Amino acid sequence: MAENPQAAAAPETLLAAPDQATQSQINEETAVLHAEYERRVASGEKLPRTVYDFPPYRSSILRHPTKNPKLVDPETIELWSPAYGQRDVAAIESDLTLQHSGEPLGERITVTGRLLDSWGRPLRNQLIEIWQANSAGRYIHQRDQHPAPLDPNFTGAGRAVTNDNGEYTFTTIKPGPYPWKNHINAWRPAHIHFSVFGQSFTQRLITQMYFPGDPLFPLDPIYNSIRDQKDRDRLIGLYDHDLTVPEFSMGYRFDIVVDGPDATWFEPEEGEH
Ligand SMILES: [Fe+2]
């Protein structure tokens, strides 16, 4: 990822929607669907935690999964799997503010968390990758051409390997919100993409961390394709003053749980926005 950040950034404009709904249409559809899911769950129906066929998320209409997942023979795939360890990732790769000759613009932040299984056990030596827009909401990606400035001192990709306590830490810049083409005046809440590699390609999971109090939460169809408010809340990094570094950065905590009832919500394979 560090070698080729372009490949890691999100292909936002690939997601142009087939129609041009207004934000209030999207809000209305979202409210109706959330109410319907609640009704169905209250009447005993078991619904998946993530709704793949979520019409307000217009740009996924033609590409969301429509069939049940099929188990493939993992052995063949795993022959091609990498094994990452502490020695493969330099400590400096977790600091996205040190990748160029100057300092990137924006609010410096420290993001720390633990990678845990559902029993609360730390997952050590796991590769965690992040990618994000710069403070102006712009990705370094040929498909992101909206008129916000690129920052010559910010690439927006980093990686770390969890330590013996399952902990990781990134130093970066708070990303800005950015427009995308899901509907008229569609803006994504500020977010950092996270990938947790596991021990093989078949275990890779992808999610996003959001920031507390973002006014775009109720307007964002990706965030709202997660049915349950509890699951949505788990994607919001917690401001933690103890992680704030004096004279240096604001601190956020983002723990990731990879299975069980407290699991962090993960995206379907192709959902990288
Ligand atoms: Fe994104």
Describe the structure.
This protein has five helices and eleven strands, in the order H-H-H-E-E-E-E-E-E-E-E-H-H-E-E-E. With 273 residues, the chain is α+β, with helices and mostly antiparallel strands. The chain has a single domain, classed as Protocatechuate 3,4-Dioxygenase, subunit A (Sandwich). It starts with a helix and ends in a 16-residue tail after the last strand. The N terminus is likely disordered. The chain binds fe (ii) ion (FE2). The site of fe (ii) ion has 5 residues, from strand 7.
List keywords for this structure.
four-stranded antiparallel sheet; alpha+beta; 11 strands; 5 helices; binds fe (ii) ion; disordered N terminus; single chain; Protocatechuate 3,4-Dioxygenase, subunit A; five-stranded mixed sheet; 273 residues
* DSSP summary, beta strand count: 11
State Rg: 19 Å
> Based on CA inertia axes, which overall geometry fits?
globular
Number of helices: 5
Helix content: 10-25%
**Helix and strand run:** HHHEEEEEEEEHHEEE
Summarize the main sheet. 5 strands, mixed
Overall number of structural domains: 1
CATH topology: Protocatechuate 3,4-Dioxygenase, subunit A
Name of the top-level CATH class:
Mainly Beta
Structural class comes to alpha+beta
Query: How many angstroms does the end-to-end distance come to?
Result: 16 Å
Heteromolecules bound: fe (ii) ion
What quaternary form is this? single chain
Strand content: 15-25%
The overall average pLDDT, rounded, is: 86
Q: Can you name the CATH architecture?
A: Sandwich
